[in-house]
Amino acid sequence: MELQNRVALITGSGRGIGRAIAQLFAKEGAAVFLTARTEKELAAVSLEISGSGGRAAYTSADLSEEADCVRVVAAAREKFGRIDIVVNNAGHYGPVVPVEDYPLAEFDRVIAVHLRAAFLLSKLVLPEMYVRKSGVILNISSLSAKAAYAWGSAYAAAKAGMLGLTRVTAAEAARKGVRVNAICPGPVTETRMSKELGADLAKKLGVSAEDQLAGFLNGILQGRGQTAEEIARAALFLCSDQSSAMTGQSINVDGGVAFS
Ligand SMILES: NC(=O)c1ccc[n+]([C@@H]2O[C@H](COP(=O)([O-])OP(=O)(O)OC[C@H]3O[C@@H](n4cnc5c(N)ncnc54)[C@H](OP(=O)(O)O)[C@@H]3O)[C@@H](O)[C@H]2O)c1
Q: Which residue positions in the chain have pLDDT lower than 70?
């Protein structure tokens, strides 16, 4: 098992990619601490994991709030005694509108949940990791950080910001035993965020959701989207000792779209 005796805090783990990461990490021996806003979803994932012999606990939180980030870290430590791995995955896409129509409050909320929460949670766990001279932070960015898609300015800015945060934190942490990396997934079409975005885009473009999706997937070398499980496997690699020489990197898991 790749993550035996590790404790992983995984945000946005009530469904989608975060759920898949939590399930895989638990299968690989980690105790997983789950968080998101919807308690019912967290309870269900926690039950799935404990039902298959894994260790899981959760607390609900809105990670766009600083106090909730502080509370989540304290709750994870109280439950499992330490935090070895943080996966910053929580987030929503935000309004599908051009810059000139983007409401400032919505812009701030998107930045807060993706970028600010990743910064805050890193800030809260790094001192503990430095004492042990070990730890891993993984930021879930996006293809949107590396390509130009209309009508998602806050999302793209937050995701590109996460890559800057990844590199600078990696530079500070590398000689203190802590690795920091990012994943840039392409379209993971099974998740709620992806489905809602597809529906919004189709409406705006005046095409069916099926045609919108087919057009988008056609631009990927593999001609298909990625599964949450495929993103989770890349997350496992980056959070395990298998990637011990990798830090400050952003890995594209997009079926062949971005090439840097
Ligand atoms: N799906 C894709 O195509 C794709 C591609 C690239 C990157 N990503 C990234 O992958 C991550 C997961 O997305 P997903 O596709 O799995 O979407 P999803 O199924 O909608 O899951 C998003 C998770 O984040 C949580 N979340 C959202 N806002 C939150 C907040 N303010 N505080 C705490 N938790 C919050 C959600 O729970 P609650 O709503 O209950 O809070 C949920 O658990 C996101 O960072 C997304 O940007 C996704």
A: none
Q: Residue 213 to residues 21, 51, 184, 207: CA-CA distances in angstroms?
A: 24, 35, 19, 10
Beta partners for residue 86, in sequence order: 9, 137
- What separation in Å is there between the alpha carbon of 192 and the centre of ligand 1? 8
User: Given ligand 1 and candidates 193, 201, 229, which is best to mutate, with the most ligand atoms within 8 Å of its CB?
Assistant: 193
d(CA 200, CA 109): 19
On whether both 105 and 198 belong to a single domain, the answer is: no
Residue 260 lies in a domain: no
Domain assignment of residue 24, given as a range: 7-186+227-253
pLDDT at residue 78 in the model = 98
* Ligand 1 atom 8: residue of nearest CA: 142
pTM of the model: 0.99
C-beta of residue 210 within 8 angstroms of C-beta of residue 195: no
Q: Give the residues surrounding ligand 1 with Cβ less than 6 Å away.
A: 12, 14-18, 36-38, 41, 61-64, 89-92, 113, 140, 142, 185, 187-188, 191-194
The string of pLDDT tens digits covering residues 203-251 is 999 999 999 999 999 999 999 999 999 999 999 999 999 999 999 999 9
How many domains is the chain partitioned into structurally? Answer: 2
Structure confidence at residue 106 (pLDDT): 98
User: Which pLDDT score is estimated for 241?
Assistant: 98
Instruction: Please tell me which residue in 58, 93, 102, 155 is annotated as part of the active site.
Output: 155
pLDDT tens track for 27-37: 999 999 999 99
Tokens describing residue 175: 């000689």
Calculate the dihedral angle through the C-alpha atoms of 56, 92, 21, 165, rounding to the nearest 10 degrees: -100
CA of 240 to the centre of ligand 1 (A): 22
Is there a single domain that holds both residue 137 and residue 217?
no
Catalytic annotation on 58?
no
